[in-house]
Amino acid sequence: MPITIYDVAREAGVSMATVSRVVNGNPNVKPLTRKKVMTAIERLGYRPNAVARGLASKRTTTVGVIIPDISSQFFSELARGIEDIATMYKYNIILCNSDHRLEKELQLINTLLEKQVDGLLFMGAEIKEDHFHSLKTASIPTVLAATRDPEGKLPAVTIDHFQAAYDATQALIRRGHKRIAIITGPMSYPLEGLVRFEGYKKALLDAGLPYDEQLVANGSFRYESGLQSMGDFMKLAEPPTAVFAASDEMAIGAIHAVQDLGHSVPEDVEVIGHDNVRLAEMVRPRLSTVVQPMYDIGAVAMRLLTKYMNNEQVEDHIVLLPHRIEYRQSTKEMAEE
Amino acid sequence: MPITIYDVAREAGVSMATVSRVVNGNPNVKPLTRKKVMTAIERLGYRPNAVARGLASKRTTTVGVIIPDISSQFFSELARGIEDIATMYKYNIILCNSDHRLEKELQLINTLLEKQVDGLLFMGAEIKEDHFHSLKTASIPTVLAATRDPEGKLPAVTIDHFQAAYDATQALIRRGHKRIAIITGPMSYPLEGLVRFEGYKKALLDAGLPYDEQLVANGSFRYESGLQSMGDFMKLAEPPTAVFAASDEMAIGAIHAVQDLGHSVPEDVEVIGHDNVRLAEMVRPRLSTVVQPMYDIGAVAMRLLTKYMNNEQVEDHIVLLPHRIEYRQSTKEMAEE
DNA sequence: CTGAAAGCGCTAACAT
DNA sequence: ATGTTAGCGCTTTCAG
């Protein structure tokens, strides 16, 4: 039988209200009384029941995190940022994988609401009407991390995906390339897939370069699809001399495809990836890539969520974190960068 | 004001006990009554309060997971295995990072117990008396994943670390190497550090090969330490011709150190890593490595935990999953393998 | 098969 | 500064 607050009260010769006060750090307790209670707690080995507290106070100090796949390097880095800040603010995390499946996402939202989480952190490519519907029935604060909803209704922390892709493409253009390929993410991912593709096209357009469908491949973000796509590009009569890949894994796959054909990177083909996962520094040539601050996105998103949960004033509901390009060895050196 | 079970009862014209029964799938409800209740639930958009349920039933269908660092590829893969099985058995996961810090581990155990988790899954290098002490005060089932305690008191799911290191070293010996180096993990990690080192030494001993301290480097599991350690080895008067690294990252660092000096892998130096993280297939040469089934370890550990939580009979409290060596391109081909 | 009622362990007014 | 009391929303005997 576990020790309850009532046992402590009896042991200390005070009421349970007083015990509750000292446990919760309420200053309205005489120091001597506090000490008596503390001693009793110590002696009995009392451990407050957070479930009972949650029921009575209607706050669980727990937040739900819905993530597509924790085993991906991108999301696990993000999750670490979330967790660190959560810990800092005394929250715990219920972590759920959605595999990008709408149905599962909705079901998870529901389960988390049943568990009375104080807030929700959502990662996932696409936000649909269904999500809003589920969320609306329980009005708990929700923040999107590394994504946004189309209408900007929900608070979100992410980077400017369009600009990032534009910058990467432009970097390749500046290096004098005329035939620049792209390996995109799935088009079902509005931001990581579609928007990056748009950024690529716009950069070509602005530079007066022709858009060539042959230089576009649809990838899955995975290594294998980069390998495959680049292999196909190389079979073209006029293969690309530079590639922008929407993920680092695909970029590395692309590099290997080039190398496997006996060519070299960056001499024959320059490659820029996206995200800057740890992997990018652990391959040769080391990968030049758009750095997306995953950890920070998670951390800032969690911090934002704490503000909503505490009813603090927040000025910007949508925060765009800065991105930049880290030039390493898969692109040639240029003086001005 | 959220809808409660009481509201549903009134709407359906039954008692709250009956509503509780249908919500919990209790068969002792007349089909017609069940339907009435279901309709009311639907109409009101009732969502059961899991916190209240937890308080009343003393079961939260939540398990605590203490992991050193979710952003590491090794642990995030493990976490995915845990989560998948947890979902399958209707449990949710509270995920916490310990950074291998004893103090934080103990504090997390405490927090999770306060939250009344039904079980605990623990990952971390070292299990000390303190852990048992904390755990003992609340008697909830605990399973270790990818580690074991020294005395085998706690249920655990892992591989035979000694044998794995022995096998890897032996594989190198069979290839005719006389000077085989090892890049170990930190010795503060009993299994991943110390035991693997022991396995290495035993393999040398059994093969009648001399043990040379110069061929031992203490790494941190990280890429950089592999790079560094191998760089040092290569400066030796008589450098090693083969290396076993206690992690894939270090193995890849070692490969790059060799390559950076203008030598090649596996021609000049053969390398075997440990774990088989996704990374191993995304480098050139692709890494030969001891495969540790991370996902399975997580999955089996979670499955085992569910058995304890349901008071099911379990035969083996310690389960050793099989390991094997995957030969790729960082070792030379051999006919018999 | 259904209902009534007693908690689960704690917080939060409200008194004193 | 401390105690009293009424819930929080649900499960679970125990009756009927």
Principal-axes geometry of chain A comes out as: elongated
Mean pLDDT of chain A: 95
Which residue ranges of chain A are poorly predicted, with pLDDT under 50 across at least 5 consecutive positions? none
* Percent in strands of chain A: 15-25%
Oligomer: homodimer
Number of helices of chain A: 12
Number of domain units of chain A: 3
Class inferred from helices and paired strands of chain A? alpha/beta
- Which chains have the largest interface? A-B, 51 and 51 residues
Overall CATH class of the largest domain in chain A: Alpha Beta
Distance between the termini of chain A: 67 Å
Q: What fold name goes in the CATH topology slot of the largest domain in chain A?
A: Rossmann fold
The sequence of SSEs of chain A as H and E is: HHHHEHEHEHEEHEHEHEHEEHEE
What is the number of strand segments of chain A?
A: 12
Features:
homodimer; 337 residues; alpha/beta; 434 Repressor (Amino-terminal Domain); Rossmann fold; 3 domains; 6-stranded parallel β-sheet; 6-stranded mixed β-sheet; 12 helices; 44% helix; elongated; DNA-binding; transcription regulation (chains A, B); Lambda_DNA-bd_dom_sf (chains A, B); repressor (chains A, B); transcription cis-regulatory region binding (chains A, B)
